[in-house]
Amino acid sequence: MNADITFRDASDAVDFGKTFVHSDAFRALFREGMALVEETAAYLDGQGREESRTLGRQAALTYASESMRLTTRLMQIASWLLVQRAVAEGEITPQEALKEKTRVRLTKQESASPLFDAEALPEALRALIGKSVRLHARIVHLDGILAEDPPRRAVDESPVATQQWLIRSAFGQG
Fold this sequence. Notes:
Layout: H1 16-20, H2 24-45, H3 47-53, H4 57-88, H5 94-100, H6 123-147, H7 159-170
């Protein structure tokens, strides 16, 4: 391998945060997140409201609790996406975005109770919960990557070690 392509210090590394917020991938993620927010709001204000009226007592309590968790999760997602879009559009700096993390917390979401009965919930709500959980997990992963300092590697570090580090980082083991 040519030693000229190894990173000598952090200034040689590509800053994922700077490139990601300007990428087509981020724009697609932003559209996906906001579309899910709109889809969920429409469901909860319409079909979901009607479906919740037909549920038994325990299922109605589960529906109310899980719909609140869903709404909270989507608010976290939307807030994170809006902060990242503000960075992309130059409205705030990446450092200011990091400060916003104290207000926009991406918390782990768990089911309402050990008695959670997913089968008792309407299929449409279960689908929205599933979509939001998957999107939330992706955003939590991205947020962790964006919060990391650029990787620092020695000049003589093995290219294989660099690839191993990248793989471990991608799976949260770095």
